[in-house]
């Protein structure tokens, strides 16, 4: 009985952390270091959807989520027009989206939430 109770508490804790992370990551993000914006969506059934777009480059790139942790998501970013592939780890720290790029591009960037205005 104790093991069952402990298992339920752990499951609830993991589910709560996952929900809290998705609430923090969800939204549009921008950085002064790039012309690309990052949009992160989350649905309980579908999971994460990550899309990059740039008005300057006139391009949209979708990312594939390959790993989810309690405080991060890791994606594969592939651009078939120039055969560019890299992995991106997104972590939410102090209200900012920290992105660590590994692969053909190795650097880190900090994104701030981009507020979309509507009429």
Structural description of this entry:
With 119 residues, this protein is of the alpha+beta class. The protein has one domain (2-113): Lipocalin (Beta Barrel), CATH 2.40.128. It has one helix and eight strands, in the order αββββββββ. Strands 1-2-3-4-5-6-7-8 form an eight-stranded antiparallel barrel. The chain is globular, with a radius of gyration of 16 Å. The chain starts with a helix and ends in a 6-residue tail after the last strand. The model is unreliable at 3-18 (pLDDT under 50).
Quick synopsis:
Helices cover 20% and strands 52% of the residues.
Large-scale geometry: globular
Count of DSSP helices? 1
Task: Give the N-terminus to C-terminus distance in angstroms.
Answer: 56 Å
DSSP E strands, number: 8
The main β sheet shows up as: 8 strands, antiparallel, barrel
Question: How would you write the strand order of the largest sheet?
Answer: 1-2-3-4-5-6-7-8
Mean pLDDT: 85
**Rg from Cα:** 16 Å
Indicate the CATH class.
Mainly Beta
- What order do the helices and strands follow? HEEEEEEEE
- CATH topology assignment: Lipocalin
Structural class: alpha+beta
- Low-confidence spans: pLDDT under 50, at least 5 residues? 3-18
CATH architecture assignment: Beta Barrel
Give the CATH superfamily: Pab87 octamerisation domain
Please give the share of residues in helix. Answer: 10-25%
Beta content comes to over 45%
Q: How many structural domains?
A: 1
């Amino acid at each position: 009985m104790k093991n069952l109770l402990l298992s339920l508490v752990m499951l609830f804790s993991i589910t709560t952390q996952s929900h809290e992370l998705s609430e923090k990551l969800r939204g549009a993000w921008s950085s002064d270091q790039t012309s690309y914006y990052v949009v992160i969506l989350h649905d309980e059934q579908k999971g994460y959807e990550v899309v990059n777009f740039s008005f300057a480059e006139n391009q949209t790139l979708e990312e594939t989520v390959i790993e989810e942790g309690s405080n991060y998501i890791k994606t594969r970013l592939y651009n078939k027009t120039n055969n560019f592939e890299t992995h991106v780890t997104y972590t939410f720290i102090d209200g900012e989206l920290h992105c660590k790029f590994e692969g053909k591009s190795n650097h880190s960037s900090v994104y701030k939430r981009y507020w979309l205005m509507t009429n």
